[in-house]
Fold Valine--tRNA ligase.
Amino acid sequence: MTKPMPEKPTVDGLEDVWGPVWEQDGTYRFDRTGITRDDVYSIDTPPPTASGSLHIGHVFSYTHTDLKARYERMRGKRVFYPMGWDDNGLPTERRVQNYYGVRCDPQLPYDPAFVPPFEGGDNKSSKAADQIPVSRRNFIELCERLTVQDEQQFEHLFRTLGLSVDWTQSYRTIDDTSRASAQRAFLRNLERGEAYQADAPTLWDVTFRTAVAQAELEDKEMPGAYHGIAFHKSDGTGDIVIQTTRPELLPACVALVAHPDDERFQDLFGTTVRSPLFDVEVPVLAHHLAQQDKGAGIAMVCTFGDTTDVVWWRELQLPNRAIIGFDGRVRSDEPAWIESEGGKALYAEMAGKTVFSAKKVVVDALTESGDLIGDVKTIQHPVKFFEKGDKPLEIVSTRQWYIVNGARDEQLKTTLRQRGDEIAFHPDFMRVRYDNWVGGLSGDWLISRQRFFGVPLPVWYPLDADGNPVFDQPIVPTEDQLPVDPASEPAPGYEESQRGVAGGFQGELDVMDTWATSSLTPQLAGKWETDPALYDLVYPYDVRPQAQDIIRTWLFTTVLRSQLEADVVPWKHASISGFIVDPDRKKMSKSKGNVVTPLSILEQHGADAVRYWAASSKLGTDAAFDPQNPKQIKVGRRLAIKVLNAAKFVYGFPLPEGATSVTEPLDIDVLAELGSVIEQATTAFDGFDHARALEVTERFFWTFCDDYLELVKERAYGTATESTHETQASAVLALRAAIDALLRLLAPFLPFATEEVWAWTHDTSVHRASWPTVAELPTQAEPSGLLGAVGQALIGIRGAKTAAKASQKTPVTHAVVTAPAETRALLERAAVDLAAVGRIENLSFVDGAELAVTEIELAEQQA
C-alpha cells in the first residue's frame, strides 16, 4: 500500500517510522525456501563485544557491511546477514566487577540469594580489595545479566542505524548452542591430535592472572636501563661483562649466549662462568639469535625474561630456574640451584617482592660487591603487554592447552598460506598482514585462560591413588552431552562425591580463549551440526567483514579452524575497514578516552546522514571524525533532504495520457548518462568499492537536480514555448525513470529517505526492489555529452543575469552563446529547454573558442 506524499517531507523521525515496518514485514528476513547455495549471499558478521557501549567506529565499519548486504539483496540474492554478540572475555569480566562491585572467588559456595552491593556506573577507581568476593556461579550470573542488558542497547543502536540484519538469525557466544559448538570443535581437535596440553613457559598477565596468546600481544615503548654486570670465569682468569635491563632475574640465569660468528667470544664457547652474588655456574654458549651489536654482544639467558629467552631455553636445552610467580612477585620458595649462603640470604631478601622492588635489591647488592660495571644507561625499549593489560607481561611456567597453528608444522603453515591466497582481500594490500602473521608464528595457539566467564574446556582428569591428577589421561564427554562445565558437573562415569577424592576426578577450571569461540562464528551463525540444511546453504560464506587490527586474531584463527575441521577457506572475500581517528589523527579507542558514542549523533543528524559519512570512506582507509564539526555528516543530511524534495518535485508532474517514449535529445542524454552511472556503481559494488558507487551516483544526482530538473521543468509542465504533448511526455517519462533508478542506487546508502520516497508510488519496499539496470531505461543510447554542455550553458546564462544585477526570473529578449563547433551542435539540440529555463525569447549560438554567454539583452532594459 502506497503512502500519501506529505506536504513538507522531512528526514526527521524516519527511523521510527520505517524500522518497525521492516521488522513487521520481514523485509530483511532470510528466506531459505526452495533455494540453492548459488542463490545465497552469506555474511560472517562480526559479533561486537558486549561490554559497555558501542562507539562511532562500530557505526563506521558495520555500515560498510550493510551497504554490501543491501546491494546484494537488490541484485536478487537471498542475503544471510546474522548478528552475534561476543559475550565472554576479559572486557566483560572487568565491566561486571566495576558495574556490580564484585570479584570472583571460585572457592566460595554459590549463594542463590546474593544481591550485588550496587548496580551501575563504571566504578573504575575501586580496588579489587574493595570488591565483594562471590562464587564463580554468582559471578557468571551477573555476567549473563549485564551482557543481556548491553546487547539490547547495541541492538537498538544498530536498528536505529538501519542495519538490514535478520534479527531472527542471532546468537551469543556464551549461549548453550555456541558453547556446545566450541566444545565440539575442541574435542575433534583433541581427537585428531591438533589440541594438546603442555607444561611450558607462558606469557602471563599478572593483573588478570591469566595466560596470554601471541595474537593478544602489543609492544609499548617503556623506559628501561642497561646495567653492566660482571660474570666471573670459572677458571679465575677474569670477568665477562654483560648488559641487561632485568638485573632482578640474575638468580634465574641459566647461560650466557653470544653469536657463533662473534670473534670476541670464540674462546669462551664451551666454558663456564659463575654469576655474581648468587655464585651459580652457567655455560657460555653460541646461538644465531644473539645480536653482536646489542649491549655487550653477549646476553644473559634467564628463565624467563622475554620470548627470546624461551627460544634459547628450548633450543639449547637449558634448565628451568623460573623465579617469578603468577602474581608477578619473586617466588618465596628457596631455589635449589643457589647453594652459597650469601646467595640464599640475598634471595630471601628478594622473595615476595615485585620485580621493581627486587631489581633495587639486586642493583644495590651489585653496587656494593663491585660487580655493577660502568654507568647505568637509561633507554626506551619495546616491552610486551597484554593488549587489555596495563602491566608488562611476565613469563611463567604453567600447564596450558594449545591448538596447532603451523608454528611448528611447516606443512600446515604452507597450507594456511595457500588458504590466504584463496581469499580475496579488500583492499588487497591488507593481505600482507595475514601473510606476515603466518610467517612470523613462533608457537602454537595457546587457548586456555585462567578466567571465569567463558566456554569451559570440556575435560576432567582422573586422580590417582594419592589424589594427584593424571593430566595425560583426560576424561572427555561425548558430543551429545555438550555443553558441559567440568567445574560444576561430575566427569562421565563418576559421581559428584568423587570430586577431589583419591581415585576420583577433578574438573578443568580453565576456560577457552575468547578467540577459540569467535574463530567459529561461521559455524555458530550457520548452526553447524544442528541445522545441516542451513549450514550447507551459507558455508563457506561469501564475505567476512572485519577490522584490520584483528587480522592476526579473528581472521587467522577462523581460517585455521576451518582448515582443521573442513579443509576449506571459510569465506571467499575479506573486507577490511579502516580505523576512526580523532581530529589529531589519533586512533579512537576506549583506552585513549577519545571515543565518541554514536547514539546522540544519530539522533541529532539522522541515520542516513551518519551512513553517508561512513560510506564516503573506502575499505581499509582511516577516517577522521570531529564530533564538534561533523562536516561530512551534514553533507549527508543535505543529500537525504534533497532526495525527498527532488522526488516530490518530480512526482508533481502529471504523466501525460498516452506517454510512451522518450524522444527529446536532452531527455535521451540524461538517461544515457544515468545508464553509465548504473554501470559504474554496479562495477564498484561488485568490487567492494562502496565509496566509488556513492561518488558517481551522488555526482549525477546533483547534476540531475541542479541542471536537468531546471532545464526541463517548463517542458514537463507543458508551459515551454514550442512545447507539445510529445515533448512534455518525453520529459516526464525521463524524470520518473531517472528518479526511480536513483532511489534504488541510493537505497543502500540512505535507506530511510529512499524508502519514504519509494512508498509514495509503490506498495513494496525499495530494499526488495531490483537493482537498476541499463536495459530497463526507456532508452539505451550512449551519452553524447549534451547534459554537461547544457549545464555549462545554464551556468553562463545565470551568471550573465547576476552580472547584470537582474533576477533569474527576468525575461531576456536576446542572448548569444558562443561555443566550439562540436559543443555548439549539442547545444542547438536543446535550445528549447535552454530558452525556457532562461526565459529567453531569442537564443542564438555562434562559434567560439570556449563556451560563454557573450551577449544578453534583458527585457526590462529594452523597455
